[in-house]
Write a structure and sequence with these properties.
With 107 residues, this protein is of the alpha/beta class. It contains three helices and four strands; from the N terminus they run E-H-E-E-H-H-E. Helix 1 links the parallel strand 1 and strand 2. It is globular, with a radius of gyration of 14 Å. The termini are far apart.
């Protein structure tokens, strides 16, 4: 039995510092398209410096201060925290209604 699209959630692992350009921007635009189709995307991003498009929920392990420090200094700790955060989200997810997407692939 197929489920309605509005019951489907997409957990996205995006190990980037999102600043509105580059590979992370491509991910943001694709997830915005997913949201427009009725799927609920939740992007787990290394760091968020610019908001994602409407309908796309983002979670980042670094607080505001970490978003202002150069990425080269916070990349390691951010990746460690992001991995833990994403694993917790997967553990809580319903496997029948959740898709995991690693953008653009494993780091």
């Amino acid at each position: 039995m197929s489920r309605p699209a509005n019951d489907v959630r997409c957990l996205v692992y995006a190990p980037y510092s999102f600043s509105g350009r580059g590979p992370a921007e491509s991910c943001a635009q694709l997830t915005a398209g997913i949201a427009a189709g009725g799927v609920h995307p939740e992007v787990h991003v290394g760091r968020l410096r610019t908001p994602l498009p409407a309908g796309v929920r983002a979670t980042a392990p670094l607080a505001y201060l970490g978003s202002r420090v150069p990425w080269c200094y916070v990349n390691g700790p951010a990746q460690h925290l992001l991995d833990r955060q994403f694993r917790r989200a997967l553990d809580r997810a319903d496997p029948e209604t959740t898709v995991a997407w690693f953008w653009p692939g494993s780091p």
